[in-house]
Amino acid sequence: MPLSWAHGEEEAEQQGQPGAVSDEEEEEEEEEEEEEEEEEEEEEEEEAEQQEEEEEEEQEEQEQPCEGQPGAVTVDE
Where is the sequence biased in composition, kind Acidic residues (predicted)? Predict the structure, then answer.
């Protein structure tokens, strides 16, 4: 590492900035973090949708039991 880099980092640290990070690097990191957050949100939404679908299916099964099952309600009754 050239001395100028080390000096620049020391200066940046003294100003309260850990390491001299360029704006471009910061922007790239922020974009990556945003993309990761979006992916996580999408996954959570998909999981929530799946759970809702499963719950709906369970409710439908409970409401419409097959004929011949104990507890099945027929039109005759």
Answer: 22-64
